[in-house]
Design goal:
This protein is an all-alpha fold. Helix content is 69%, strand content 0%. It has one domain.
């Protein structure tokens, strides 16, 4: 291998090492933000679950007055498909 090719390879390797170091620094800065974001999302999910568990019984009581509503009593709420609610 010629010295010129070796020099080119060493320069490329050094450039890649610099890019990797930059990415690592950026990643290390983002970790605290990601942890905080995960904590907020976890808090949100827990809040939604709390509200759902609080209103579940009254909601199923209301559904029991609707024809076919009793099928939901021991199952999770039905998933509403937004495409089925659109008029064709």
């Amino acid at each position: 291998m010629s010295e010129k090719k070796l020099k080119i390879l060493l320069d490329k390797m050094e450039s890649l090492e610099n890019k990797i170091n930059i990415l690592l620094e950026l990643h290390q800065k983002d970790i605290p933000e990601m942890k905080q974001s995960c904590k907020r999302m976890n808090s949100h999910i827990m809040g939604v679950e709390s509200v759902y568990s609080y209103i579940r019984k009254p909601l199923f009581s209301i559904l029991s007055y609707i024809p076919g509503g009793e099928i939901y009593e021991n199952s999770p709420l039905p998933i509403m498909d937004s495409s089925s609610s659109k008029e064709n």
